Amino acid sequence: MKVYLMTDLEGVAGVWTWENRDDHTQINVEYRLMARRLLTAEVNAAVEGLMSGGATEVIVNDGHGAGSTIDIEQLDRRVRLIHGRSRPFWLPLLDESCDATVLVGAHAKAGTPSANLCHSMSGQIRNYTFNGISHGEIGMQAMIAGHFGVPMVFLSGDVHACREVEGFIPGVVTAAVKQGLSSLSAATLAPAAARDLIRERAREAMGAVGKVAPYRVEGPLVFTEERYEAAFDPENPPPVGTVVDPHTLRVEARDIVDLFNRLYGYSG
Question: Can you give the pTM of this predicted structure?
Fold first, then answer.
């Protein structure tokens, strides 16, 4: 049984502030190295749980930032790792051959009250909608997986991220490893306890494969991107989409994959 494991960083236990790759002070370098270790350990715990629950293959996508956050030397030897930049798609190798998708280190979407480090792709985004449904990165992964008939069965991260996915995927298994108190604070489990919880819930999630339905938002899609600051000029519109107002862009697409190809210039 093949599982596609996407990762992020902001939902990891012990991570509480934004990663700053331009700050080379000792304290920031130490924080970033710690965050890499914490993420890698949570990924390994999830892999252990998935494998003990019946997975025979796990593909891990190093999905945060520059795509080089996971400490590959400490990664479970049984997985294949997708990392690096200039990828052919946001979720490469996620297709019909996968039996399930999961997410480790999840954060809530932009604007979620009290959620630690909540955002949607970047700090500029106020909201994304897909045929009128508001989603952040969790929903986008679930929709792309659903396009290929693949269910999202497990998520770990901030309790607000867990509530978010539980709100639109009935039966999904979650592991809340911290409780966001504000954008820049959280009450977190000790890392060892977080890994134990992830391991247990990931194993449980394998029992949800075949029971949890793939998440689909049927095309054609009308996507809107709303930004906090004015970013779109009706007199000089971007190459893709229609400017609704200086804060809002609308893009029409056949489906979620076509939308991502149009938005990000993927060749597919």
Answer: 0.96
**pLDDT tens column, 152-197:** 999 999 999 999 999 999 999 999 999 999 999 999 999 999 999 9
Percentage of residues in the chain with pLDDT exceeding 70? 100
Structural domains of the chain, ranges and CATH numbers in brackets: 2-109+134-215 (3.40.50.10780)
The token pair at 158 is 């901030």
**Structure tokens, 232:** 């779109």
Buried b (16+ CB within 10 A) or exposed e, 197-210: bbbbbbbebbebbe
Report the alpha-carbon distance of residue 266 to residue 82 in Å, rounded.
17
